[in-house]
Amino acid sequence: MARRSFASVPKRDAVRDLAALALAAIALLLGVPRLLGTDTPLAVVSSWSMEPTLHVGDLIVVSGRETPRVGDIVVYAKPFGELIVHRLIEIREGVQGTLFITKGDANLNVDPPVDPSRVKGKVVLVIPYLGAIRLIVESAARLIVGGFPRPS
């Protein structure tokens, strides 16, 4: 019987562990959106419009499983894909169908009406400042390529 080299065991274990980690990451990336019922299960607060409730850099977990109600904080996509995190303050039923009226807690004015199909879901968990790393990296990348940080 051939003897195994002691040095090869840790390498094999490392490869196995790396493969297990990769599979877990893939399962997480595919499973969390399905579990939460949205294609946007995580987002980062990038403006001060929801102060003092949410802060710039907060990581939010979004669920699309429940119908948003007045008072919920929702995440919706503007026509060109930018995500907005604001409070649902009114649901209007009219000739054009249902429209959501939202407003940032720190804003004076309401947002333009939002079609419910644009809503990704409602905020179900806030992890303070965990998303700040992403904002810092994005700002640094814009500066490196010759741009300027996006105004809030």
Summarize the structure in words.
This protein is an alpha+beta fold. It folds into 2 domains: 30 residues; 103 residues, Umud Fragment, subunit A, CATH 2.10.109.10. It is 28% helix and 27% strand. The chain has a 6-stranded antiparallel beta sheet. The longest helix has 29 residues.
Overall average pLDDT: 83
What's the CATH H-level homologous superfamily of the largest domain?
Umud Fragment, subunit A
Shape descriptor reads globular
Q: What topology, given as strand order, has the largest sheet?
A: 1-2-6-3-4-5
Question: Measured on Cα atoms, how large is the radius of gyration?
Answer: 21 Å
User: What do we call the CATH topology of the largest domain?
Assistant: Umud Fragment, subunit A
Question: What percent of the residues sit in helical stretches (DSSP H or I)?
Answer: 25-40%
Bin the strand percentage: 25-35%
| Oligomeric grouping of the chains | single chain
Uncertain ranges: none
Quickly name the level 1 CATH class of the largest domain: Mainly Beta
The largest sheet is: 6 strands, antiparallel
Strand count: 6
Category from helices, strands and their pairing: alpha+beta
Give the terminus-to-terminus CA distance. 68 Å
